[in-house]
Amino acid sequence: MKVLLITDSYPPEIRSASHLMQELAEGLRDRDYDVVVCTSYPQYNLSEEFKKVEFPEYTEENEIKVIRIKTLPHHKVNFTIRGIAQLTMPEIFYRKISKYVNEKIDAVIVYSPPLPLAKVGEKIKKNFGAKYLLNVQDIFPQNAIDLGVLKNKLLIKFFEKMEYNAYKNADMITLHSEGNFDFIAKKYPQFKDKMHILHNWVEVNSFENISRTNEFRVRYGLENKFIILFAGVIGPSQGLDFVIKVAEEVKDIEEVCFLIVGDGMEKKKLEDIAKEKRLNNVIFKPFVSKKDYPKLVADCDVGLVCLNSLNKTPVVPGKILGYMAAGKPVLAFLNKESDGHKIIETAKCGYSCFSDDLDKAIVITKKIYFNKDKLENMGKNGYKFVRENFDRDVILNKIEDVFLKKEF
After folding, report:
1. Cβ atoms 356, 239 nearer than 8 A
2. Residue 38 CB neighbours (<10 A)
3. Is residue 242 classed as helix, strand or coil in its secondary structure?
């Protein structure tokens, strides 16, 4: 059975989406599916070793066929340019798929965002006779409206029409949490029958047998620090200016250090704020490779996640699962609607608060530091919970049962 995965991001790019899609591709391959990945050419969120590498447009990597497509710039640019780039992506993607894939496609899975890629799924369904699954992560355009990025009423109507058509034309829609399911079901009740909850997954095995080596502690000069790690994209949705505020309020605890590893359009602004405030407890470093990421997490004490309080959708940051798989306690500053609060509370793997409640954020930051004797148990709780509920093979079984083996 040939399965086509459509995604804006795929390794060597480093972000939750790229890791999710590679793990999905490899999992399907291991189950004897013929997998083709169609993705954007890697230009963003790269570790140093890949920044100058030239990638072929079509290649095969570990028995997975990968088509990498050059598009207009759509990261680290203003939102107008990003919008134009994303609207042109579907036609460019489809042309390249038609060039390299000549045989029947049995199933197509589209990762959204960006939402316009749903049009590729629609065309593959129509012209190749494939069944089509739309995997919805960020709920667009609602998230852009919440963040104040999208204000024009005509543009809002345009994108809501695109959203409606995306859901209408998919054979199946998957949402990564109960809250996201309820949010879409309320807005579009006519599509509820084709909607399923499909939690995000993590390849737990990639974190096993990885012990603390202090390699990154030595590299960054943080040997004796209590490291609270944020690793990922640094953009408006993350709202990491809130972390800077927390860091300023706990700077008297000399051992505590906020290590921010990654890149994005907000990074320079945050670096300038930290420098202006003379916050020696906030350290910025570039992305590390996927293979080094488990070692980075192992060298830290706590995994940090943050979402802008302006978000109004129940999104769950994917990096929560990575920290849990690595056996690290989680400190989370999330919008009140996020289902991440429930996951952390249920798993008993850390502390969370709303990302507009600075006083509470200070309290739980100090709490996780002054209760070091509880960190190991929190880490074990998180590992057990993610192994039982979010391991890649658990989710792959669901994808097979509710989609790949089902007739539409």
Report:
1. no
2. 25
3. helix
**Locate tokens 């197509």: which residue?**
108
Task: Give the separation between CA 138 and CA 376, rounded to whole angstroms.
Answer: 32
Q: Please, are residues 246 and 361 in contact by the beta-carbon 8 Å criterion?
A: yes
Cα–Cα distance measured from residue 133 to residue 130, given in angstroms and rounded to the nearest whole number: 10
Encoding tokens for residue 59? 């290649």
Nearest to 331, CA basis, from 248, 259, 392: 259
Contact 284, 258 (CB under 8 A): no
- Decide: 358 and 242 in contact? Cβ < 8 Å: yes
Question: What one-letter code names the amino acid at 199?
Answer: H
Give just the sign of the alpha carbon dihedral 355, 359, 361, 362.
positive
Joined together, the tokens standing for residue 338 give 């996020």
CA distance 177 to 331: 19
For residues 335 and 309, the answer to whether their CB atoms sit within 8 Å is yes
Three-state secondary-structure class, residue 153: helix
Asked whether 267 and 75 are in contact (CB, 8 A), the reply is: no
Q: Residue 124 pLDDT > 80, yes or no?
A: yes
What's CA 10's distance to the chain center, in Å?
11
How large is the average pLDDT for residues 340-362? 97
For tokens 């320079």, the residue is 268
Residues 6+ apart with CB under 8 A from 196: 172, 173, 174, 175, 398, 402
| Residues forming a β-bridge with 5 | 37, 109
How many helices, marked H, and strands, marked E, lie in the chain?
A: 15, 14
- Reported as a single tens digit per residue, the pLDDT across 277-307 is 999 999 999 999 888 999 999 999 999 999 9
Whole-angstrom Cα distance, residue 200 to residue 28?
A: 15
| 310 CB neighbour count, 10 Å cutoff | 17
Hey, what amino acid is at 11?
P
Question: Residue 37 — φ and ψ, nearest 5°?
Answer: -110, 130
* Model-wide pTM > 0.90: no
The helix/strand/coil state of 60 is strand
C-alpha span between 94 and 306 (Å, rounded): 35
